[in-house]
Amino acid sequence: MTSPSSDGFVSLFKSAGLPQSKAVEAAKNAKGAAILRDLILSHNLVSAGLSEKQAVLVSALALQLGKAQNAGSEARAYITKAILEEKLKSVDQVNGLWSRAFSHVRDS
Asked: What is the pLDDT of residue 103?
């Protein structure tokens, strides 16, 4: 059985382009789900018309952000924009760019 907040996350994630199975999976991690919700809302991703692939990449970014301490909003926005502009096409590319961006944040 899912909680009402999980159901709300799943509905939002599906409206942003994630398939049902990926939306349910993303909603299981409370921290990642909250970050994904924030990314969707702050970047208007529901109305952006994301492809399924782009939505999966944004979800992967949210998972990376959930693992980070003090993740910068500039890095979030930069990577989200790169996904929207189809400059990043795989989870490995998202994770690689995040690693580079986050190492810069940690070093400053």
From this structure: 64
